[in-house]
Design a protein that fits this description.
- α4 links the parallel β2 and β3 (72-77).
- The chain is built from ten helices and eight strands.
- The protein starts with a helix and ends with a strand.
- 38% of the residues lie in helices and 21% in strands.
- An eight-stranded mixed beta sheet has the order 1-4-3-2-5-6-8-7, with helices on both faces.
- The protein has helices spanning 3-15, 24-28, 38-43, 59-67, 80-92, 108-111, 141-150, 164-176, 196-200, 204-211, and strands at 19-20, 49-53, 72-77, 98-102, 117-123, 151-161, 181-185, 217-222.
- It has a single domain, classed as Vaccinia Virus protein VP39 (Rossmann fold), CATH 3.40.50.150.
Length: 224
């Protein structure tokens, strides 16, 4: 994407009512206006809150918002030029139950309060295979602690990835921590039994992976 196109998207994002771009300083100092108030202040309903972390172009957030109008969806990514597409589509379709939040995922416990979130989707994250970069892996213990804090006691996490390494790493970690794995599948399009939203909704990158013949893996788990 050219720099002119990126700038155009950044400018459009500023005009979109479903894009929230908080000041990092306000978030870090616990002054983010929606923390603990997402349902009442932003969505103005009492429906469950579902996050998509590293939402990319926003296909999953938008797809689930269409499928589950009784839930609230928030796509989170630091790259606003990417989720511009999802935000624009949601506005064009009049989807009021989805929005996009431009922030680093490391700040998630500053963006949401204790037990404020019902579900978390992690879709096709960078597996960070190099050992020195494990601190950025979205299912490492530090991130799991943050998810545990913001999730309701009965909340669930979904990991959908083309990385067998990420799938195996996460399963191993969950078993080691004695967390409850509700469902696991090494190839969701070959092995039957995956939830509908796992196979019905596909991201831009997922379609590319499928064309390359890569298996798509999925885990659903709880954090105690």
């Amino acid at each position: 994407m050219g720099s002119k196109n990126k700038l155009k998207r950044f400018r459009e994002n500023e005009t979109f009512s479903n894009v929230i771009q908080p000041n990092r300083e306000a978030v870090v100092s616990d002054n983010f206006e929606y923390k603990g108030k997402w349902k009442e202040k932003y969505f103005k309903n009492n429906n469950p809150v579902v996050l998509e972390l590293g939402c990319g172009k926003g296909e999953y957030s938008v797809g689930m918002a269409r499928k589950y109008p009784q839930k609230n969806f928030i796509g989170i990514d630091i790259k606003g030029a990417r989720f511009w597409r999802g935000a624009k589509t949601a506005l064009e379709e009049g989807l009021s139950n989805v929005c996009f939040l431009r922030s680093q995922i490391e700040l998630i416990d500053k963006l949401f309060d204790h037990h404020e979130v019902d579900e978390i989707w992690i879709t096709f994250p960078d597996p960070q295979i190099k050992y020195k970069r494990t601190k950025h892996r979205l299912t490492n213990e530090d991130f799991l602690d943050r998810y545990r804090w913001i999730l309701r006691p009965d909340g669930v996490v979904h990991l959908k990835t083309d990385s067998e390494f990420m799938h195996g790493y996460t399963l191993g970690l969950l078993h080691g921590l004695e967390e409850e794995v509700l469902y696991s599948n090494h190839n969701v399009y070959k092995n039957q039994g995956s939830p509908e939203e796992v196979t019905e909704i596909q991201t831009f990158y997922e379609k590319q992976y499928l064309e390359e013949g890569k298996p798509i893996t999925y885990i659903k788990f709880k954090l105690s």
